[in-house]
Amino acid sequence: MIKKTIFLLLIVVNLNATEFIVEDVNSSKKHSSWIALPYIFSTDSMGLTVGAVGIFSGYIQPQMTIVATAFIGSTQEVEKLNSDDSTNIEYSRAKGFILAIDGYRPNFSKRTFISFLGSYAYYPNQRLYLDGSHQSKQDLDSNNPKETTPFQTQGFNNWFKLDARYVLPWGESKESVLPTIKLKRGVAVNRDKIGGGIPFITGQSTIGSEYFYTKWTADKLIQKPEFRTNGLRFFFIHDNTDYPDNPSRGYSMKLQTSIDFGWTNSSQSWNSIEAQYSHYIEMPKFSWARQNVIALNTWSAYSPSWDKSKKLNPDDPNSIIDAHQPPMFEGARLGGFYRMRGYDSNRFNDKSALYFATEYRVIPNFNPMRNQKWSPIAIDWFQAVIFAEAGRVAPEYNISTLLNDMKYDAGFSIRALAAKVPLRFDMAFSDEGSSMWVMVKQPF
Fold first, then answer.
1. What is this structure's pTM?
2. Does an H or E element contain 400, and which?
């Protein structure tokens, strides 16, 4: 039976951001633009849900982007487990607010940029893949948290990230910190010789740190257990593309380490290492297309701290969380709106992971929203995409294991450049069903 998972979340992924200023050569408001959109969708996990999103690009400071969205769902029946394994029926609804402020430059440093991304939300049916190993079987009918994958429960999913990054005086940002990218109907027109040059001699390089915090609750259980994590990330990003928000050529790379020291209210300490590389190949244009690109991506992660020989609660015979294991939404995980989009969020998680993706992206000349004089929504282009992904998690970092018996998915996407920010609607198919995602910015 094919399951249908529809998930809508609008955020800005500031960690991957390269700092630059966008100028629209066809607009009197060269730097600033905004868009506000209502949305409505219905899913088994959230019910009928309505909301609105606002995107503001180039306000306060020309390189900044602000995204805010709020949503509320219809009332749904949810189960509450009793001590005798019986259940009570309660009522709950999805509700939440997400805010992203990306690229603020403080007065004390021309090369330092600060971003914030946070969410406060309650969901009537969260899917927690407590056992996300490669061989785990999805069972959506069981209520036993010790046996089922996933455990489905109502609860909070609150999180925020605050990062500060420094643009190094190398390459394109050696003299001018913020390159100016001039767009004509959403396509860069002043970047013919930019993208794919010598690493660190060309392109833009950034180092930074991020403080992160997440709290998940399982309100279905009597004791309402919580999983909390907070810590620091340290990262290095090198972007050598022509237009980081929608590259047509060049490459980018990222190295990152995350550490939860186990301080304050963290459930336990853990760490992880991640590396990512993306490459973009500009293909000859068709007569009916403005841009024709093949995008490639590979990503890998490993958690040195994960100790599979011990449990988080060693005195509890039913404990299923390993000692110093990253939570299912951190470290080596696959599934969701960035990697393995045909599977649930954080469907697979283990000590190591390897992932590959390819996308074919084409921007046609046809754009029914091109005449901005009559349209209240500033959309510069639509983009058609087909994609395929492969990935695997494993209990040890062994290349032969990670390349064997991989999970696969494929799909298509319709994307648009709205208020100078790419929006995407992805539809993906896997052996566990189909998923739809609505997101801000390209997946890589």
1. 0.91
2. helix 399-402
